[in-house]
Amino acid sequence: MLDQTKIDALRHTKVATQNLLINGKHLPSSDGGTLDIVSPLDGRLLTQVAAGTKEDTERAISSARAAFNDGRWRNMPAAARKKIMLKWADLIEAEALELAVLGVRDNGTEIGMAFKAECGSAATTLRFYAESIDKIYGEIAPTSPDVLGLIHKEAIGVVAAIIPWNFPLMIGAWKLGPALATGNSVVIKPSETASLSLIRMCELAHEAGLPEGVLNIVTGEGNVVGETLSHSMDVDVLVFTGSGATGRRLLQASAASNMKRCYLELGGKSANVVFADTKNLKQAAAVSAAGIFRNSGQVCVAGSRLIVERSIHNEFTEELAKCAAAMKIGDPLDVNTQSGAVNNERQLQMNLDFVETAQAEGGNLYQGGKQILKETGGYYMEPTIVTGVEANHTLAQKEVFGPVLAVTAFDTEDEAVALANCTELGLAGGVWTSDLSRAHRFTRAMKTGVVHVNTYGGADLTVPMGGVKQSGNGHDKSLHALDKYMDLKTAWIKL
Predict the structure, then answer these.
(1) Domain 271-460 carries which CATH code?
(2) Which of 192, 265, 319, 382 is catalytic?
(3) Which of 27, 51, 388, 468 is deepest in the core (most CB within 10 A)?
(4) Active site includes 212?
(5) pLDDT digits (tens, 9 = 90+) for 160-210
């Protein structure tokens, strides 16, 4: 159980200006530039981070390339690499509360979720991939007796990872775990509005014994650091979680440079479909409310579209609204808080603009829709429910990334499938029903990478996470994620 006294003791700890981490050394930006880090909890300056330049980013790439080329990590015995990654996970776990509080002050996630989904998840992820290191084998092909066909699995080279602000440790570990387990070197760029906990996690990697240059971190603006990484001729793989607009720019940069592999997770507009035969509507409503309103809706797989059978539309919407109204919204460092702050002021205004647009297009503001707790100086928003949302409305088509739920009624299963698939995105979705056959039909019919049945969220590391359509390509999590960071090499040997 989290200790409120310990959390409060960490709440006001001064955070020093954070430098870049290149070749194992903490460095200011080459031009001395910094970015202000404003806490979403109270709108106050928390600290500053180095604003990496193009020169800094190129230096980090060169550091990663040198580390890869001389084999200081990829040629290390598998057991030794495994030991370092397991120790890294142990250090994260030992410092979990400090990391969680630092991350909450930076990005606004409620402490209960941050402790589990950030620090706990990161440590678990690194252990998962550490255990895979000495279990990755090549193959022997079935050939004629006079030929030996070998299939080698090799590290690719330099990986650039661009990480979002909602779950920097969890998503950072999803990239770093398999990239490092397979022997690559990495340059990681955190979000401008959530760098602090990820910087510390990377420092812990070096404390665990990761060789210098294998993991480098460059903070700064996306149009400088991200552009340099994506256009680099010396980055072999680019992994990114974020917006579709940025994903397109990264693909264009890849084509314009060395055609580096790009694996993009570009968000979702996930449909949560509830049929009238759902066994426990109250439980479904409670889970569905958490599935959109926890972390202020700042979750890529959030069930942001509720598609509910018309015969239970009013009953279910009312029950979900009760669950939302009962949630404690506010100070993310209060252990009783169930949904914290919106990450930044710009995102808060975008959320509010979506609500205005939804009403202008004919949606009904059922609940919420306003900024709250203005007196704190922070960025907080009520859980918001808009009913009467049609398939062509903006709120049904575009990702909000905030605590805003679009509700649409349906009459038939075919109509529900059509509504679930009516967007250009396809990351996740859910279906609630007591009919096993319908659950299987719907799972096949939904054009998404993840389908939840009679639940929403909670899939662990044993299964992949990724989307279809314009939600991107490639998968995080599971052993399948390793494939993104390895080359296959054939050796055809005449005996």
Answers:
(1) 3.40.309.10
(2) 265
(3) 51
(4) no
(5) 999 999 999 999 999 999 999 999 999 999 999 999 999 999 999 999 999
